Amino acid sequence: MAKRNNSHLPLSEVLNEFIKENKLQKGMDKVDAREAWVNLMGNGVNNYTTAVELKNETLYVSLSSSVLREELSLGKTKIISMINEELGRELVKKLVLR
């Protein structure tokens, strides 16, 4: 059973400790990367996005439009830097558009 602290802690600290103790950070990173994509790309791109998945520092994005895929592939490095800036850390190193 988990230890119990009688001191008052902010909820954010408690949640971060829970995530750390239960090794949930990878799952949280996947959710955060998906949310960052949705927030940054807007409705125009999100209408053609079918899946966003993070695997080992690589973000895989499935698009239903080949024209949009080609357009986005021209700015991969900028997209990666924008996503990492949104996340607040260097999480995505490679972007694969399919």
- Mean pLDDT level: 92
Task: Note the overall shape.
Answer: elongated
Strand arrangement across the biggest beta sheet: 1-2-3
Q: Describe the main β-sheet briefly.
A: 3 strands, mixed
The tally of strands reads 3
**SS content category:** alpha+beta
Q: How many discrete structural domains?
A: 1
Ranges with pLDDT <50 over ≥5 residues? none
Number of helices: 4
Distance between the termini: 45 Å
- CATH fold description: GMP Synthetase, Chain A, domain 3
What is the C-level CATH assignment? Alpha Beta
CATH architecture: 2-Layer Sandwich
The percent of residues in helical segments reads 40-55%
What's the gyration radius in Å?
17 Å
- Name the helix and strand elements from N-terminus to C-terminus, one letter apiece: HHEEHHE
Please state roughly what percent of the residues sit in beta strands, choosing from under 5%, 5-15%, 15-25%, 25-35%, 35-45% or over 45%.
15-25%
Which key phrases capture this entry?
alpha+beta; GMP Synthetase, Chain A, domain 3
In words, what does this structure look like?
- α2 (25-46) packs across α4.
- This protein starts with 10 loop residues before the first helix and ends with a strand.
- Helices cover 54% and strands 17% of the residues.
- 10% of the residues are buried.
- The mean pLDDT is 92.
- It has a three-stranded mixed beta sheet with strand order 1-2-3.
- A hairpin with a 2-residue loop joins β1 and β2 (58-63).
- It has one domain (25-97): 2-Layer Sandwich (GMP Synthetase, Chain A, domain 3).
- By secondary structure, the chain is of the alpha+beta class.
